[in-house]
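To the wet lab folks,

You asked to see what we're planning to order before we commit. Fair enough. Below is the target structure as tokens, and below that is the sequence we designed to fit it. If anything looks off to you, flag it before the synthesis order goes out.
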């Protein structure tokens, strides 16, 4: 594994390995820079031909809403009992079951620290373990395209499926996540608050559609 340095506003983290757990739980702060990605083994995005190609995926969402890049929103599909985490412009994760927002805000330990430690004492910030029950392993969707109409599309990163005995719909039936977001250039002039996301009805097969935006009055997390 190679060293990757991530600077999140005034916080500076030196970590090795797969950054998805850290970046998918981005705090309510602008992403300033990513350093030493030339040594990062996972290229941020899987299955890309090189690190430059991986970074180019960020160009369109950055132009659409640079302040909102990687900002995390959390919502729930009440009908299917899923928890959805949207790191806008980067990745969407769908979990079976209901997870508290306070747990989803913790970075999953897909990475290790400077000394290659993986336990919960290795970092100066709280994390959640990556060795979850096989039914709680998230289905991960990486950004594929972004358009000027504030629409972003995320495609399922296919990995070997674990047999899950839980009697509930499986996110494996979802191959595409469409996320719509209206940029708000004045958001950072308001008190810091995480955006809300809302799961929308759709007739598209194997697709889930999500709206991300400023929370409405008295809205914390919207349920479908």
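Sequence we intend to order:
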């Amino acid at each position: 594994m190679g060293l990757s340095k991530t600077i999140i506003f005034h916080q500076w983290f030196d970590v090795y390995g797969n950054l998805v757990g850290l970046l998918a739980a981005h705090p309510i702060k602008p992403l300033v820079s990513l350093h030493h990605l030339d040594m990062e083994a996972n290229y941020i995005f899987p299955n890309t031909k090189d690190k430059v190609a991986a970074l180019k995926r960020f160009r369109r969402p950055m132009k659409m809403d640079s302040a909102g890049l990687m900002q995390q929103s959390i919502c729930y599909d009440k009908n299917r009992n899923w928890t959805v985490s949207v790191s806008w412009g980067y990745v969407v994760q769908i979990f079976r079951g209901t997870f508290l927002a306070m747990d989803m805000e913790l970075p999953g330990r897909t990475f290790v620290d400077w000394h290659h430690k993986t336990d919960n004492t290795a970092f100066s910030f709280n994390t959640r373990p990556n060795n979850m029950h096989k039914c709680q392993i998230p289905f991960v969707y990486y950004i594929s395209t972004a358009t000027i109409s504030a629409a972003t599309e995320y495609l399922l990163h296919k990995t070997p499926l674990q047999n899950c005995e839980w009697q509930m719909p499986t996110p494996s039936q979802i191959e595409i996540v469409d996320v719509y977001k209206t940029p708000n250039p004045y958001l950072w002039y308001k008190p810091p608050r995480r955006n809300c996301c809302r799961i929308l009805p759709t007739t598209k097969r194997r697709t889930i559609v999500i709206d991300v935006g400023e929370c409405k009055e008295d809205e914390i997390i919207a349920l479908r």
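Structural context that might help your review: The mean pLDDT is 80. The helical segments are 20-23, 51-56, 59-65, 101-104.

Thanks,
Computational group
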